[in-house]
Amino acid sequence: MDTEEVEQRIEAGIEDADASVTLPRVPDEDHEDAHFAAVVVSPAFENKTLVEQHQMVYDALGEAMTTDIHALEMKTFTPEEYRNRD
Questions:
Q1: Domain holding 23: CATH number?
Q2: Which stretch is the leader sequence (predicted)?
């Protein structure tokens, strides 16, 4: 799974989401440890706790979280939070 596919799954699974996914470290070719980092912005996060927001991302990725993705660091924002971040 590549970064574009992770972005597409998140955006398809969360209403009006804009996801930006990167590889935060150099992949280990011997172990194929698929570590991803995602910044996800969506109005669907409004009035949700951070845990609920992260669960929405995990749900959008579905089974890939147990088969194709070894680790996922994420930052989630509502559009207003994203505009006002430092």
A1: 3.30.300.90
A2: none
